[in-house]
Design a protein that fits this description.
Elements lengths: L1 E7 L2 E11 H5 L3 E2 L6 H14 L1 E2 L3 E5 L3 H11 L6 E4 L5 E6 L2 H11 L5 E5 L1 H20 L12 E8 L5 E2 L1 E5 L7 H8 L3 E5 L13 E6 L2 E7 L14 H10 L14 E5 L3 H11 L3 E4 L5 H9 L10 E2 L10 E2 L5
Parallel strand pairs: 3-8, 5-9
Antiparallel strand pairs: 1-2, 1-7, 2-9, 4-18, 5-8, 6-7, 10-17, 11-15, 11-16, 12-14, 13-14, 13-16
Helix pairs in contact: 2-5
Length: 332
């Protein structure tokens, strides 16, 4: 096992590098919050199988038993590193190698954790599982014994304590107001939101959950959800991304499938609100900025066996493909 540190700007996060189990994924001890696209999952399955290796680690997180694990991560990473490099995007990556005893300690501590959560890498996780099942089937058809300890039964993973992660907002831009004028659009929004124009120079970032900002006609507005319009029936209906779908995009803009409808687009918060302003000048008519989703919200949705709305979370920094690899030695 290794300790993996990423630093981007003023944010540093550390993870344990190890292997997760296909069995845990199959038995839903590794929980997901997104659906996968069949074609993308199929392509990644072929890639891993043909390469005979995992070149992109899955990004899992956990909230139980964090403190002792974080303490050991810090202890190991206080020594001399195994590798240190800064990639062309300015992110610094540092690795520390664990001793066999330290690795055994982590295994013991992770046995106390009931669930892991896919933070980023739903397609990678599903593809790794698919490869395991394909290779298991091949062995069984060849009359060989499958013990469950074969390399293909595990996949390369970064295990992050949940409170070290940084989640950015994932904002929305509209290419049409569905035939409405700006005034008519605001009037319809006002049924569920209190809207006020922001003074010049004021912060355009929403201050809290259920509070948004709207860029329309070259001006920024606060857009706060009315308490009477909040549906508390499920973890999903309380998410800001779902609130916008239920109260704005579907009833006002007639957008029902956010993944396929070309009238809406998504802008990661790392690009800033200047990017939203630029899009409104070039190819869009309005932008709605959101408060970042929390990992607690993500895990609550996963625990309820539900699926997050499209484009709800944006994680940075992301694992660098190819920096950490794991080969299926002795396979194929």
């Amino acid at each position: 096992m290794y300790i993996y540190q990423q630093t981007m700007g003023d944010h540093t996060q550390k993870a344990l590098v190890g292997l997760a189990s296909n069995k845990d994924y199959e038995e839903k001890r590794i929980k997901r919050h997104e659906y996968t696209l069949a074609k993308k999952e199929e392509d990644r399955t072929k890639l891993i199988n043909i390469q005979n290796a995992s070149l992109e680690p899955v990004f899992l997180t956990f909230r139980d038993n964090q403190e002792p694990i974080k303490h050991m991560i810090e202890k190991i990473s206080s020594g001399d590193c195994y590798a240190d490099c800064t990639t062309d995007d300015g992110v610094r990556h540092v690795l520390w190698r664990c001793t066999p005893d330290e690795s055994e300690w982590f295994i013991h501590e992770f046995e106390k954790i009931p669930n892991l959560y896919v933070a980023d890498g739903h397609h990678r996780t599903a593809a790794a599982y698919n490869v395991g099942k394909l290779r298991e089937k091949e062995k069984l058809e060849a009359g060989e014994t499958v013990t469950g300890e074969e390399p293909f039964n595990y996949f390369l993973t970064l295990f992050y304590p949940v409170d070290v992660l940084k989640v950015y907002d994932y904002n929305r831009v509209l290419k049409t107001l569905n035939g409405l004028t700006s005034e008519q659009f605001v009037e319809k929004l006002s049924e569920h939101f209190d809207i006020k124009e922001l003074p010049e120079g004021a912060s355009t970032k929403p201050a809290a959950k259920h509070r948004f900002t709207l860029h329309l006609d070259n001006k920024w507005h606060s857009m706060d959800l009315k308490a009477t319009s909040l549906d508390r029936s499920t973890p999903i209906t309380q998410l800001d991304a779902q609130i916008l779908t239920d109260l704005v995009f579907t009833p006002i803009c007639d957008i029902t499938d956010l993944k396929k409808d070309q009238r809406i687009d998504f802008v990661g918060g790392i690009r800033g609100h200047k990017e939203l302003e630029r899009r409104c000048k070039e190819d869009c008519v309005a932008a709605i900025a959101m408060y970042p989703c929390t990992m607690e919200e993500v895990m609550d949705v996963a625990d309820a066996d539900m699926i997050m709305p499209p484009k709800s979370t944006w994680f940075e920094p992301k694992p660098r493909s190819g920096l950490i690899m794991r080969c299926f030695e002795g396979e194929m």
